[in-house]
Amino acid sequence: MVFCGEMKGGKQTASIAREIAAIRKLADEVSRRLDVLARRASEIGEAKEYVPVIPPSALSVRTSLADRIVLLLDANPRRKFRPLGIKEAFPSININSIRSALIRLELDGEIKRDGRGWYTSLET
Known about the structure:
Blueprint: H1 4-43, H2 65-75, H3 83-89, H4 95-107, E1 112-113, E2 119-120
Antiparallel strand pairs: 1-2
Helix pairs in contact: 2-4, 3-4
């Protein structure tokens, strides 16, 4: 037997799920557009400082720090990052936690160390 409240709640849940999916799709599109614009600006020399593309999924509190770092590096495959650059992307994360995660990720073969203190995506 289905109660009215359950039916209504199910419709509300489905509506919320659709809205979340639409917002995530929009956020991904915005992220792609920002990446394209940042690359164009840096190619023509107008960008004094590169602003890293941060995928929306990397901002999720539920995503581990290691996963966030990999997502950031993969979204910016032609860029090298130092721990402080990653700290700028994720200001609430402790710098020592970032350094530890970078070392662990490099040892596990999930990212590349490109010189002393520089890290990059495997997709470069």
